[in-house]
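Sample intake — Integrase catalytic domain-containing protein
Collected from: Ignelater luminosus
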Amino acid sequence: MGTYYFILIDAFTRWPEIHSVKNITTSTTINICNKIFSSFGLPQVLVSDNGRQFLSYEFKNFLESNDIIHKVGAPYHPATNGLAEKTVQSFKNALKALRGNNNDRNRDLQAFLFNYRITPHTITGESLSKLLFGRQIRNRLDLLYPKVTHSTRDTPTRTQLKTRILQEGDRVSVRSYQNSKWQFGYIHKVLGKLHYLVRLDDNNQIC
């Protein structure tokens, strides 16, 4: 459809990165790789086809400077890099199924990536986002679940805290932060829910 797409797949999680580019020069290829690597880190191995930009001296030097091993598939046999080729076919089919309007092409790309990344993979059984981030990224399906507020989710109840309610006359041990010593005494007066006036065994008082 008159547009070049740079497609890179993480072999472990199957996470795809797809970028629309105006040309397929070595410089553009290196720039896109740098952009992806800045988000996810440097790979140990990069597998590509035999495109001229991947076999150029500049690209070879770029990989060597980042300690990345470069492997290429067999010429004229794209199936040797089956993981990438499968994603290419899925992407092409998705673009055909979507609107295909030039003004919406970038939106179609983002829609494909979003849905592809949250869908459980047939091999791993997990979504790509779950494998990459350790969690499923938020999507519209989450709207089907009831919202959990911070007040109900994060605030512990008195039963959960198991706080003991003290009364006047109860025997307690208290710590004086002036000398860091524990002392014993009795609750002399209740000043609040967790605030008491304690009369120590030596007749001194402490709050």
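Post-analysis note: The chain has two domains: 4-144, 171-206.
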